[in-house]
Amino acid sequence: MLITTLLIAGIAVFSGAGQTPAPAAQSPEIVIIPPERRNVPGQRLTLSLGELFIPDYWRANAGGQVDVVIFFHGAAWVAEQTFYDAEKNGVLLSITLKNYQEVFQEPSRFQATLDEVVAAIEKAGLARPARINRICLASFSGGYTAVREILQHEADYSRVTDLLLADSLYCAYVDPETRVRLREDQLAPFLRFARDAGQGKKQMWFTHLFPPEEKYRDNTTTRTASYLIEQMKGARVPQSEINALGMQLLYSCDIGDFHVRGYAGMTHQDHFNHFYNLAEYFGRISFGRRSKR
């Protein structure tokens, strides 16, 4: 698949050719205002595909069990400080690539990545032996393509307990000219996960741009959210909350442990705020919280 690259504020965002990017263009010179950068305490270890962040408060669970979030597509420092603020007792591997599909089509790649996490933790003397327990796949923007590839491998799918998509589920159209039908084959792994989450077997959170005016709701993440909600026979419940970033929540949909949140917005800043707001949703995944010892 042809990938186009947009570099903004040091973060790479990818959109598949023939797909509608999540945000609408706002000006020839796009300026994104990131959060204040902080030096959150913890160890940072370089692995073959990204950076492993181990918060200073992290402790292995009984028997050396390690809960891990693998996050795709965004500046590691942003992901790390949002994860730190969520106070989950887990570790975070941040990965940003230009070729997610190619890398994770290889069935052994995901397990090799988990093995690297275990080896790094053991080498650092933080748990010995260590073993992976709960796994959350999280992504922003075009990072969903890595998630899709991983979920298509049965052995990997069975191991993933949580899914967190921050304005991060696009889809091509059967006919790009008419833009009527989505490619359901591209959404199949996510629909399967949504159904399992609806039955309480897994947990899924999906936040997306939901323009206030209906005539603008042809953006791809709104289309994919609508598809999942329709397939799950769910309904949007109107909301009106505004969070600390100024993001206005317009609706929620909850079916068991399947959750969708639609936020007002159409600009690139609105799109990136889903990334900057990850602390809220990292805080909701099924991992245990940090010990206060």
Structure notes:
With 293 residues, the chain is an alpha/beta fold. It has nine helices and twelve strands. The longest helix is centred in the middle third of the chain and has 17 residues, at 107-123. Mean pLDDT is 90; it is low at 1-22.
**What's the story with the biggest beta sheet?**
10 strands, mixed
Q: SSE order, as H and E?
A: EEEEEHEHHEHHEHEHEEEHH
Strand composition percent: 15-25%
> How many discrete structural domains?
1
Top keywords for this entry?
293 residues; alpha/beta; Rossmann fold; two-stranded antiparallel sheet; 9 helices; 12 strands; 25% strand; disordered N terminus
How does the SSE layout of this entry go?
Elements lengths: L2 E6 L2 E6 L25 E5 L3 E6 L9 E8 L3 H11 L4 E5 L4 H5 L2 H17 L7 E10 L3 H8 L2 H6 L2 E5 L17 H15 L4 E7 L10 H12 L5 E2 L10 E7 L2 E6 L4 H9 L1 H5 L11
Parallel strand pairs: 5-6, 5-7, 7-8, 8-9, 9-12
Antiparallel strand pairs: 1-2, 3-4, 4-6, 10-11, 11-12
